[in-house]
Amino acid sequence: MSEPSPLVIGTRASPLALAQAREVQARLAAESGLPEDALPLTPMTSTGDRIQNRALSEAGGKGLFTKELDEALLAGTIDLAVHSAKDLPTELPPGLAIAGYLPREDVRDVLLTPLAADLDGLPPGTVVGSASLRRQAMVLRARPDCRVTLLRGNVGTRLRRLESGEMGATLLALAGLKRLGLAHLATTILPTDSFLPAVGQGAIAITIRTGDERVARALAPLCDAATGFALAAERAFLAVLDGSCRTPIGGHATVEKGSLAFRGIVLTPDGKRAETVERAGDPADAEAIGREAGRDLRARLPAGWVAG
Ligand SMILES: NCc1[nH]cc(CCC(=O)O)c1CC(=O)O
């Protein structure tokens, strides 16, 4: 019998990306019966990883974290790419498709700070570091006296900069901390009603070449349908609103008892104004639900809030 040809897994090289890719590798090995050495990992550094000193919204261009993996897929040097769904642009390059998502981790943000037990307890004027315009705006909305500052880099870098006292607090995704075995570092979990997560937060997406049935079939048993519906709604919402990545936007869908519920928010960067939207319906209509939520919200925004 001939050896099955390997399925090469592309990933970014950060510790979180590697942890996620290893999770896909282990699940794929379990489902396919292939040994893990027939599912090799190919780590790559992305443009987004190299830019450490600027906000990504300033660096311009979408897909800063995905370009190298996209190119490797199209060139055939990898067969699947593992992404944080949050970092995946709403539109993929021609020839690529999302094969599916692993079951979603906790979607919530956490606060990390040595200064207090929660956000309300932070001393007045505390400097909160985050690279996310959404998190910055939501912190300012809850605590207008705090100062927000750019904090980039991978999770480890951010934790070191918090430890050095350069800032008093930061926010991270609980999902990423859990995957790194660092959830115990969280000071407190922020509730989704005031800290609506980023679109895709907590979900691992797998991209493949469009029409690559061999890889699609191998991945199908790993993929979670409820996460797929939720992400379809969230990504459709973002696609309607995301003229630029300079707008603080949150969006989150859940699927329970056969019904999909979506909530979305757009804020001004200073957190002083916010518009929200809610929609529910059949998971089969996920994309339309997200799109209509986006259109409804966009129609209510004062001119100049979002581009495009
Ligand atoms: N933008 C970086 C990024 N992309 C995905 C995660 C966390 C894992 C996830 O949301 O699935 C993080 C770090 C963070 O926001 O704390």
From TrEMBL:
Domain Porphobilinogen deaminase C-terminal: 232-298
Pathway: Porphyrin-containing compound metabolism; protoporphyrin-IX biosynthesis; coproporphyrinogen-III from 5-aminolevulinate: step 2/4
GO biological process, alphabetically ordered: protoporphyrinogen IX biosynthetic process
This protein's UniProt keywords: Porphyrin biosynthesis, Transferase
Signal peptide location: none
InterPro entries cross-referenced by the UniProt entry: HemC, Porphobilin_deaminase_cofac_BS, Porphobilin_deaminase_N, Porphobilinogen_deaminase_C, Porphobilinogen_deaminase_C_sf
Pfam families: Porphobil_deam, Porphobil_deamC
CC per GO annotation: cytoplasm
Cofactors that this protein relies on: dipyrromethane
Listed GO MF terms: hydroxymethylbilane synthase activity
EC number(s) per entry: 2.5.1.61
Domain of life, source organism: Bacteria
Catalytic activity: 4 porphobilinogen + H2O = hydroxymethylbilane + 4 NH4(+)
Record's cofactor remark: Binds 1 dipyrromethane group covalently.
Porphobilinogen deaminase N-terminal domain segment(s): 7-216
UniProt xrefs under PANTHER family: PORPHOBILINOGEN DEAMINASE
Additional information: The porphobilinogen subunits are added to the dipyrromethane group.
Summary of subunit composition and partner proteins: Monomer.
Role this protein plays: Tetrapolymerization of the monopyrrole PBG into the hydroxymethylbilane pre-uroporphyrinogen in several discrete steps.
Family designation: Belongs to the HMBS family.
Protein name: Porphobilinogen deaminase
Species of the source: Enterovirga rhinocerotis
Gene name of the record: hemC
